Amino acid sequence: MPYHTHDYNGETSFDFGHSHGYSGKTSAAESGVPHVHYIEGYTTRDDGHRHYYRIQTSINYPSPNGGHFHYINGQTDAANQHVHMMQTATSIE
């Protein structure tokens, strides 16, 4: 089976007077079967710090025009004594 990835990007929740951007590519997953991906990386540096994240996506959902996408919903690791929420969807593949 072929494998594929998705692009993702977004902005974290606004907490403690700031937010962070994030973007990247998901981990690879098998095409044509129910599946999830993982996203992992660091947010942009804002307010003097950044956050690490590793989140599992939702299962694949069909796109109305073909292909599929995944929801991303989770939180960053703590930095500077706080966390941020991350909520977006992947690109359609």
In words, what does this structure look like?
The structure is a single chain. This protein has 93 residues and is mainly beta. It is built from no helices and ten strands. Strands 1-4 form a two-stranded antiparallel ribbon. A two-stranded antiparallel sheet has the order 2-3. The protein has a two-stranded antiparallel ribbon with strand order 5-6. The radius of gyration is 14 Å and the shape is elongated.
How is the topology of this model organized?
Elements: E1 3-4, E2 7-11, E3 21-25, E4 29-30, E5 38-42, E6 52-56, E7 61-62, E8 68-69, E9 71-75, E10 85-89
Main sheet makeup: 2 strands, antiparallel
Biggest sheet, strands in spatial order?
1-4
Question: Order of helices and strands, N to C?
Answer: EEEEEEEEEE
Helix content: under 10%
In short:
This protein has 93 residues and is mainly β.
Summary tags:
single chain, 93 residues, two-stranded antiparallel sheet, elongated
